[in-house]
Amino acid sequence: MALSRSDHGSTVSKEGRKLVEGNLVIAVVVVLLFPGFQHLPRYFAPLKFGIPNAHDGFSINRATERDEDLVVLDSTSTSYPNKLGSADLSRTTQLSGSNQRPLAITGLRQVLRDAWAMTHPYWFSEDRWAARGLLIAVIALNLGIVYINVLLNKWNNTFYDALQDKNYTVFLHQLIRFSWLAGLFIVFAVYQFYLNQMLQIRWRRWLTEYYLREWLTKGAYYRMQLVAGQADNPDQRVAEDVPQFIASTLNLGIDGMRAVVTLISFIAILWGLSGTLTIPGSSIRLPGYLVWAALLYALAGTWLTDRIGRPLVRLNFDQQRYEADFRFNLVRFRENAEGVALYHGEADEFRTFRESFSSIIRNWWGIMRQQKRLTWLTAGYGQA
């Protein structure tokens, strides 16, 4: 069936509108959901391999003649400033024995400051030139993907015009053009993913060595057990949270950049296709009305997604913590297997395992319920 030019125009307009909507959602979610990073410092708070400040609400007086490296802290001590690459635990966690309320991390400025404190040491380390080169390559490939998408959108217009006009020469030329556009897209997509992974593993290697060195320096691993009561499972946080933090940071930053560039690119196309709308009952003329409609639609969807999905930030953080606690209990049992066998403590250990795992199940059900609410919204909103 031949497509009329008006039908084709409406098809391209609809595709352009959906592209603008989808990418605007990503771009705005980066801004609205970025406060979710407020829990990232909590992932890394246990990796602050120093002594928390006194206003955290504890008082310690532990020192021995044989352990001169241990410190004596009182309620006025202000030693051991925060290490680079971590956040102050006191701002997000209330330690036991303290009557002080936890200070909430609010505002994008504070979130960005914390994120920068955790990310920038690597970009100024001895591996900085390789890291920056890989990052530039990944960004360039992502921009190339956006440019190819714009070319494919224009190709779509020319290709369907050739079908409508039954122009075999143009039709064959567009098939050839599509072949090399698709080939370039595949090459760019493969290598941006490959180089992204290369950057992740180099960053992870450096950051893991950094935290392990800090953890093992001057008995920090021991002092943390004495004073940082909320610093749970630092070993597992190094193994699990470091790669997740790196992957989330790169994906959020690069995908956000690509979404903004795609948004700018396709807004120009949609603006040209939408024309001018005269508002009924008035003489007001609205140029590029499809652009404004797409923006309002995307902003409404993003706001709803933020409202419904925000509890998942805390639930996912708790899930990681409960999983780490459960693994720690299993490892502790294995390391003390002889003592458990001698005192026949299997029943007590099994009870501990069940209690630890019950927290995982309870929190998982919370994630399931929240994900269900979010899926109701996203699946329904995407069909509009």
List descriptors.
single chain; 384 residues; mainly alpha; 11 helices; 72% helix; 2% strand; disordered N terminus
Characterise the protein shown here.
With 384 residues, this protein is an all-alpha fold. Helices cover 72% and strands 2% of the residues. It contains eleven helices and two strands. It has helices at residues 5-32, 40-44, 108-123, 128-165, 168-216, 220-227, 234-274, 289-309, 311-335, 337-343, 346-382, and strands at residues 276-278, 285-287.
Strand content: under 5%
| Biggest beta-sheet profile | 2 strands, antiparallel
Average pLDDT, rounded to a whole number, is 75
Rg, Å, rounded: 27 Å
Structural class: mainly alpha
Which consecutive residue ranges, at least 5 long each, have pLDDT under 50?
A: 1-105
**How do the strands of the widest beta sheet line up side by side?**
1-2
Count of helical stretches: 11
What form results from the Cα inertia axes? elongated
Helix content: over 70%
Which sequence of SSEs, written as H and E, runs from N to C?
HHHHHHHEEHHHH
Note the gap between the termini.
26 Å
By DSSP, the count of extended strands is 2
